[in-house]
């Protein structure tokens, strides 16, 4: 039978009859390669099974329970800990602290289980120096410097670890695959073998991955589909604060975040991260507004800052840091169109404090009020937190878990809050003349002296704060 020559994208699997430089599906360059395939469909025959099928009620669920890593903040991001047989991909920029975090977790896990740490980027002596510095020396923590997949498998067979850490997957190569380590073919081959090894042995596996300049995980996109959990390790390299965020988790939630403090003595989890993303000043400053975002089950007060400056340029700049650029642009458009703000001849800069990245729609109103405060050079009232999603018509939409957010704000000493109408199920009322009415029973709901005010739209909100 004559073989048909086809081409397939290594990133997304898109197929084409002729070679092209750019994938027609994912738009990636240089990922389309030749693939020989016989025409027709192969008929699969019966083969041996690894285990007989049993009623689902007889399957033992205890083996899939998560086990703690010994690092509570990492357990939070993982949804409780590491599940036996699960494969976790930890991605982040070089030098941000991935190896330090995993070495800390490996040492604490090794107190009760056997851990094998494979380093492909550093020598064993370099890892030992780091372990001495952070106090990560344990008898059941094994270390090996390898870059060959076959040698890695040999170490696994000899050590029989409960937890395997590979730092990093881009440095491991296989003699059975073409290309250099870190390439598309090699990464897929190595990751596929490690996933198979983890499932067969019930061994928790953590793979370290690098990210590109755009912030996405380096290597083929199929790598994210092969693993069970994908964690992003992020933070400002000029700051000690680090955060681990889950973007895929087959065993738990994907909206949890763990906070860490990276210092010379190692890395420590921050159990109470409230207040880290808010500036502490004696007097309010124009262009600042405090909101409360929700990261999984954790409410985090965060400060949004804005600066509006006149410019002679024909195209004023719109720059944001830590915020969704497209959502900020939408909020600025609503501010100009619905509140007649004159921002056409001004540069507008928006940012968050502490390096936190906010994507919660509940921060829309705080961004708008921060920009309005900066444009009018008038500070917002002190002790105020603002919540609300802004619609294109200027309406304010309720957000979820308002009571939990406001309870955290009251705990930190804030005294008043501005929320959309209907955010609180009980205690709100309107008098028909002013759309801003304090919510009754506020002392019982939150804290003594904590006032909650409702606003129906952006006009009401601006009227309240000015």
Automatic annotation (TrEMBL):
A motif (RadA KNRFG motif) lies at residues 248-252. The keyword Hydrolase applies. Pfam families: AAA_25 (PF13481), Zn_ribbon_LapB (PF18073). It comes from the Bacteria. Residues 63-211 form the RecA family profile domain. Keywords: ATP-binding, DNA damage, DNA repair, DNA-binding, Hydrolase, Metal-binding, Nucleotide-binding, Stress response, Zinc, Zinc-finger. ATP binds at residues 92-99. Residues 347-466 are annotated as: Lon-protease-like. The middle region has homology to RecA with ATPase motifs including the RadA KNRFG motif, while the C-terminus is homologous to Lon protease. DNA-dependent ATPase involved in processing of recombination intermediates, plays a role in repairing DNA breaks. Stimulates the branch migration of RecA-mediated strand transfer reactions, allowing the 3' invading strand to extend heteroduplex DNA faster. Binds ssDNA in the presence of ADP but not other nucleotides, has ATPase activity that is stimulated by ssDNA and various branched DNA structures, but inhibited by SSB. Does not have RecA's homology-searching function. This is DNA repair protein RadA. It comes from Streptosporangium lutulentum. The lineage of its organism: Bacteria, Bacillati, Actinomycetota, Actinomycetes, Streptosporangiales. The gene is radA.
């Amino acid at each position: 039978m004559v073989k048909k020559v086809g081409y397939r994208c290594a990133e997304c699997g898109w197929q084409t009859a002729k070679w092209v430089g750019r994938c027609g599906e994912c738009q990636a360059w240089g990922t389309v390669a030749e693939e020989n395939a016989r025409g027709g469909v192969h008929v699969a025959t019966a083969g041996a099974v690894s285990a007989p099928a049993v009623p689902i009620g007889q399957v033992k669920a205890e083996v899939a329970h998560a086990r703690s890593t010994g690092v509570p903040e990492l357990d939070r991001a993982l949804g409780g800990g590491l599940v036996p047989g699960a494969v976790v991909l930890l991605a982040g920029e070089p030098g941000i602290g991935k190896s330090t975090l995993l070495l800390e977790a490996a040492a604490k896990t090794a107190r009760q289980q056997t851990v094998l740490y494979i380093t492909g980027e550093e020598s064993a002596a370099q890892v030992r120096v780091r372990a001495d510095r952070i106090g990560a020396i344990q008898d059941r923590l094994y270390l090996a410097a390898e870059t060959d997949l076959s040698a890695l498998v040999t170490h696994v067979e000899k050590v029989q670890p409960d937890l395997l850490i590979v730092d990093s997957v881009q440095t491991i190569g296989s003699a059975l695959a073409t290309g250099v380590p870190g390439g598309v073919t090699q990464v897929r081959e190595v990751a596929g073998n490690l996933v198979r090894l983890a499932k067969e042995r019930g061994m928790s596996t953590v793979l370290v991955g690098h990210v590109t300049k755009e912030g996405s995980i380096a290597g083929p996109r199929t790598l994210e589909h092969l693993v069970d959990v994908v964690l992003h390790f992020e933070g400002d390299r000029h700051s000690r604060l680090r955060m681990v965020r889950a973007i895929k988790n087959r065993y738990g939630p994907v909206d949890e975040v763990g906070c860490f403090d990276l210092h010379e003595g190692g890395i420590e989890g921050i159990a109470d991260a409230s207040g880290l993303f808010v500036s502490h000043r004696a007097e309010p400053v124009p262009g600042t507004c405090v909101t409360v975002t929700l990261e999984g089950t954790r409410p985090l007060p965060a400060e949004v800052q804005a600066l509006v400056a006149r410019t002679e340029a024909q195209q004023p700049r719109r720059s944001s840091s830590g915020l969704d650029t497209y959502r900020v642009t939408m909020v600025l458009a609503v501010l100009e169109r619905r509140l007649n703000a004159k921002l056409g001849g001004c540069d507008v800069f928006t940012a968050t404090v502490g390096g936190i990245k906010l994507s919660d729609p509940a921060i829309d109103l705080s961004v708008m009020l921060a920009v309005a405060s900066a444009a009018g050079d008038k500070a917002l009232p002190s002790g105020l937190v603002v919540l609300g999603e802004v619609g294109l018509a200027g309406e304010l939409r309720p957000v979820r878990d308002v009571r939990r957010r406001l309870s955290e704000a009251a705990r930190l000493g804030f005294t008043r809050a501005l929320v959309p109408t209907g955010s609180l199920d009980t205690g709100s009322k309107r008098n028909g003349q002013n759309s801003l009415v304090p919510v009754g029973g506020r002392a019982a709901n939150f804290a003594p002296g904590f006032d909650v005010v409702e606003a129906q739209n952006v006009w009401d909100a601006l009227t309240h704060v000015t």
